[in-house]
Amino acid sequence: MASRRGWIAPREPQPFLFFVLNSPAILLLLAFVLYPIAYSFILSLHSYNLRQPARFRFVGLDNYATIFASEQFWRAAKTTALFSAGSITLTVVLGTLLALLLNERFPGRSLLRAIILIPWAIPPVVNGLIWQWLLEGRYGLVNAVLKGAGVIDTYHSWLTDYNTAMPALIVAQVWNHIPFVSIVVLAALQTIPDEFYEAAEMDGANLFQRFHAITLPWLSHSLLLVLITQTMVALRTFDIIYVLTGGGPGDSTTVLAWLTYVTTFNFADFGKGNAYAYIIAITTMTLSVVYIRMLWRRGELAR
Amino acid sequence: MRRRSTFSARTALLMAAALLFFLFMFTPVYWMVATSLMTESEMLTVPPHFYPHEPTLRNYATIFGLGDPGVLAMAQNRAPAV
Predict the structure, then answer these.
(1) Please, are residues A270 and A49 in contact by the beta-carbon 8 Å criterion?
(2) Where are the alpha helices (DSSP H) in A203-269?
(3) ipTM over cut 0.85
(4) Which residue is closest to B30 within chain A, CA to CA?
(5) Which chain A residue's Cα is nearest to B48?
(6) Of B21, B35, B82, the CB nearest to A112
(7) Is B72 exposed, middle or buried (0-12, 13-18, 19+ CB in 10 A)?
């Protein structure tokens, strides 16, 4: 640790040089990340409806107050919670199962590994179009297969039925996002040393015990990452709703992101729309912090 | 011999699970490609054909502007998607 004779003394703080060297990145972040966020927040504090552009004025937190007082918001919040809980749970559970499967040896494994990547390459809007065509009431494949197998007696219009529109959306979302979860979890699985399992087997641990004591703690950081990204994705899902149901039938699939879109672009109410957007962002951030608190520590303890 | 039989039962189980995942993950993609190779009238048959009986690349030709002008004009006038 002898002091080095360089042209920068390593221990000497260089706050000015730090900012100069990082200025390109800092400027870009300011212009393209911080400025829109701040501008959106400022708009959310104003009464700003494009139908009455002259009445642009500061109203403080009135937009938020109106939103929280409206029944529409709470119904959308409930729908969002339902959609998120369903899609996150299914995506993470199925994705992890698929990763565990792909970590085993069996004939056809490499083929399956290649094929499960396809949904990941499909953009959400195309994903919506695929499922729209699959679930179509008259010509859809799902109806034909289910009727052929004797599960349903008559063709069912999945996307226009109040009760099946949400499950259909969840299936489409899960299909699109399973690959991401599987890849992340599979990567983590492949770093687990075999010795752990051998030692556990010596000690007489059964399959479930091995999973609980070795695999799960080892995966906790990957699962944390997957949970956070999936929560963010689920809370702001908009594109497949736009394509598949348009928030309907009734308000059965009107999630907060859809309400944000409708408020901003159909009702041209930019103030309230930005307030909605902020509510989504703050909810996502809060949930992420909760996850990190929960899972990070558990992962550290397990090591 | 016992060891070997449990091994193959395990493999069979894994492959069954793999088949389920394969069907779920691959069917939508297959259906997208199969439909793209059908003519519009075949696409709208009830019950649907599980594979294109008379595969055609005409849809792709239309996209690239190579189709017959009448079809092309129709395609351009049509509302996107749906």
Answers:
(1) yes
(2) 207-210, 216-235, 239-244, 256-261
(3) no
(4) A130
(5) A139
(6) B21
(7) middle
